[in-house]
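Entry type: protein chain
Record version: 2
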Amino acid sequence: MTAPRSVSAIGIILLFWNMIGVAAFIMQYSADLNQLAKTDAYTARIFAQMPGWAWTAYGVAVGAGTLGAILLLFRKAAAAPVFLLSVIAVIAQFGYSFLGTDLLAVKGATAAIFPAVILVIAVFQWRYARSLTARGMLR
């Protein structure tokens, strides 16, 4: 079955979104924590104390999301499980952020808004690719 043009448009948007995530990961991972501490000491401390597994989850989340979007653009059914990996990694990463730190106490409930948006988009990507695969549009 031929996929509608909207699949390409959505795939491009998702690729762009995930590439922004990759850029955010690179900027956060390579941030000069001494400079960051001058403007946001709390975030600098959180980044410095973030365990390796949480950084790995973050990298997997954005890397799998990007790969999933590329697979979607190439109409590959492998996009769905790769997007699922991204969802799991997003949950692990933000699980640490909200359960392993005092982020909500320090920054307030509004600190959860953007992570919630990220999770919603990650789940959308996975479910969208799954639905396209079920309809025979990804092979």
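Comment: The mean pLDDT is 96.
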